[in-house]
Amino acid sequence: KDSKIVFIEGCRLPFQKPDSGYRIFGTYDLARLILKGVLDRSGMDPLHIDHVILGCTRPDVESRNVARDAAMGAGLPVSVTAHTVGMDALSSHQAITSGIEQILSGQAEVVIAGGVDSMSGHYGQRPRPWRNPKSIPQMTGKQKGWLNSIQKIRPGGQSDISVFGGLSAEIDPGSKSDHLAAMYDIPREAQDAYAVRSHQSAAKAYKDRLSVAELMPVAVPLDFEPITRDNAFRKDFTPGTLATLAPAYTKKHGTVTAGNASANADGAAAVLIMTEEKANALKLTPGVCLKSYTYTGHEPLNDLLPGPVFAIPRLLDQNGIKIDDIDVFEIHEAFAVEVLAIIKTLGSAEFAKEHLNKRSEVGKIPLIKLNPQGGSLALGHPVGATGARLVTTAAGRLHREKGKYALVASGTADGLGHAMLLESMSSLT
Asked: How far is CA 63 from the centre of its chain?
């Protein structure tokens, strides 16, 4: 009998806009806090933890393995091994699935997996247009001069990788999304309306205390006033508000703006997973099984489709189910147009025939089942942590809504896609 990998606990720090609530923290600090949070929430004895895996795309300069540093900082025994992974927006997805593989291969019994990223205060580690030098107290006049010199040799003030060229420098997620909107005839009004939905859903979920269940408050020096909520979502967002924003990427005819695109954020999220047998031995009662997952890749520059349009059909086929069988959808909202394109594409018979060798469309994702607590458009996107947030939210919804299956999906600008299927344990009895 195959072992079932079960979800025991998941939580996240409230996501914060860069240079705001977590301005003085680096990735190590946020990672240490989330590991401690998972232990506290679950009541798990640190001696039972075998391995820690964290996704991270912007580690601190001083930390070569933030998972290991944070594990020791959180009070885990030094015998607990740990490693850090990077896969852009799929980093914490990869951390979780690597944890599953560690358990299934017999290398570990109990794993904490998740992700972390901080965009605050790390000059030299993020694109210059997103940095606010005034917010970096340790920056000297000499350092500012160095940054100005670097700026002069960068074409268009792009991210650090643009200096060296290569494939990554050619992939501009915003411009790619503008092209996607044109290719699939998704107007600006539809994108703005979806973004408003995300913000209003996040505000309602917070008011109804649905999101609070997965949040771990953080006391930040020097006043130690607890941060208890995400600070990016706006309950007063309306289509009229967003209509005033200028295109962010393609200046003349672009439809992607700062309002219908996700914003980078500081944050961390993590989950505690193990086999069902181990959970029983520890007298734990898991509610959700991490049943199946897949990764896909496609050509990123000419084929503009988001990764989930390939990952979701493959996941459904792996498990012999259809979109109509899914009760809970949690899909990463990098851009409003990408989510709308995923919905439109999976409902297209032409796409299914051309790209999937199927006779009919994959199926239509009902909006009522999709991200009802808001998504990355409203909550923000700590790149290395978003996947663990999606899994935690999906598990909570599956339990609360008494569904059978939850589907989590995300993609990256470089053509990668991921999808994971969660199943309620009550449906297995």
From this structure: 22
57-66 pLDDT, tens digit each: 998 888 899 9
**How many whole angstroms from its chain centre is CA 159?**
21
pLDDT of residue 127: 42
C-alpha distance from residue 217 to each of 24, 32, 34, 213, 229 (Å)? 16, 14, 10, 11, 8
Distance CA 404, CA 398 (A): 7
> Where is 252: in which H helix or E strand?
none
Please report, as a single letter, which amino acid is at residue 366: P
pLDDT per residue as tens digits for the range 94-128 = 999 999 999 999 999 999 999 999 988 554 444 43
Q: Where are the strands (E) in 118-266, listed by range?
A: 218-220, 225-227
Round to whole Å and give the CA distance between 272 and 46.
12
Q: Which residue has the tokens 């490693």?
A: 83
Please name which of 49, 14, 27 lies closest in space to residue 272, comparing C-alpha atoms: 49
| Residue 363 to residue 138: CA distance in whole angstroms | 53
Query: Which secondary-structure segment (H or E) carries 25?
Result: none
Helices (H) and strands (E) in the chain, counts: 14, 11
Cβ-contact 198, 332 below 8 angstroms: no
Dihedral in degrees, nearest 10, Cα atoms 203, 209, 214, 216: 90
Give 213-222 pLDDT, tens digit per residue.
999 999 998 8
Task: Note the residue count of the chain.
Answer: 429
Contact of 82 with 95, CB cutoff 8 Å: no
pLDDT in tens, 291-306: 999 999 998 877 789 9
